[in-house]
Every structure is written in C-alpha cells, then in structure tokens.
Q: What sequence folds into this?
C-alpha cells in the first residue's frame, strides 16, 4: 500500500494525474491496483480469496511434509551407517 501523495511524488505528477494513469494501467490489465480515495491510499496487492489462501496453505503443508519425510529418511540412513560401523568394529 502506498499513499496517493507519495505515489504522486515518485511519479512527479499531481494526485489527479497519478490516479488517471494508475486507472488506465488497471483498465489495460497492466497492473492490479485498488484506489481508496477517502483514505488516499493505493493498494497494488490483489485481495486473496479464501480458496487462494487454502491452496497456498495446502502447498506450504505439502512442502513441509516433504521436508520432514526427507529429514526422517536421512536420520534413518545415519542410524544404519552407524549400526554397520559399530558391528564392524
């Protein structure tokens, strides 16, 4: 999120021109933006739907479980190697 005042400063435009250019880019689907005039704020992040949040969470859980499974495998391998080394001595 950025204020329209700060965005105008960065673009070297007045607030009306800034809003006009941002709106044109949104209409052309070049960017995603939501302008909140009363608060004077422009948000460039698309609001996630509950389905998007669940899909992201599910992907994160899958990744975590994969890491845990890989770690367990490596630990078991180390135990086997040390067992073999202990019985060889």
A:
């Amino acid at each position: 999120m950025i204020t329209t005042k700060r965005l105008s400063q960065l673009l070297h435009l007045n607030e009306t021109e800034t809003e006009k250019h941002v709106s044109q880019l949104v209409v052309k689907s070049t960017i995603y933006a939501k302008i909140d005039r009363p608060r004077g704020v422009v948000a460039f992040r698309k609001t996630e739907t509950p389905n998007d949040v669940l899909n992201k969470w599910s992907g994160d859980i899958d990744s975590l479980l994969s890491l845990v499974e890989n770690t367990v495998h490596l630990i078991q391998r180390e135990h086997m190697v040390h067992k073999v080394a202990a019985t060889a001595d």
In short: The longest strand covers residues 34-36. The CA atoms of residues 35 and 42 lie 5 Å apart. The mean pLDDT is 92.
